[in-house]
Design goal:
CATH superfamily of the largest domain: HAD superfamily/HAD-like
Number of strands: 14
Distance between the termini: 6 Å
Strand content: 15-25%
Number of domains: 2
CATH topology of the largest domain: Rossmann fold
Strand order of the largest sheet: 5-4-3-2-1-12-13-14
Largest sheet: 8 strands, mixed
Structural class: alpha/beta
CATH architecture of the largest domain: 3-Layer(aba) Sandwich
Number of helices: 8
CATH class of the largest domain: Alpha Beta
Length: 260
Amino acid sequence: MVKLIISDLDGTILKNGAQQLPDGFIELVKELRSKNIAFAVASGRQYQNIQRMFVPIQNEISYIAENGSLCVYNNKVIYRGLIQHELGLEIMKEMQKRPELNILLSCEKTHYIENKNPEFINRIQNIVRNDVTIVDNILSVQEPFLKLAGYDPRGNSYYASTFQQLFDQKIKVVTSGTCWFDFIAPNTNKGIGLSTLMNCMHISKEECIAFGDEYNDIEMLQAAGTSYAMIPCAMGVEQYATNRTDSVEKILCDILNSDY
């Protein structure tokens, strides 16, 4: 019996750069809840940003935000993953050497970006709609670092491999969507977040279904008993899933209409 469904957002529920949930998705989750099936979101996005998408049910679902660095169940943080401060500074200094790269620093209450690229500032504030603090130099931030990300509007293929080579021995670097690459705190990923969540909910792996499309979803797909890699997905991600689908909503409807 299914007791928990967890899904990535961008490229999985949100297609083609969408910033709002598909019509009817909230109602689908409400139907799942009426059948005692819990729902959780796992994303590289900011916790506050994800909450805004799910306003009608934001207190009824669970969250794995910042690619696993912040896990929230019953409105309480159950896990935090932090990047060591000196390592974070080292990464950001290296990113600053490449002016075309935009840096996003995730802390628990806000995201920090530099006051240098109006288009990027507009994207994060008004399109993605994150809680943002703008600073002249991101190296001045003193709060604990949850996650670091680089954004290149040309695509993450330009620099993701470069930073993987530079920091492979110190931190995991994963692509997220088409334009982002993320630096994930040690001992942190969506799979660890999901395992922590299942433990809190007393749910077994076999009672969980997961959906994802990118390399930052692999551990989550492995942690669930049943998993779906999206069509399309990043090359090779499908090898870590038990099934494939082009629509989360279609599978949710199948679950609601069966004894899944």
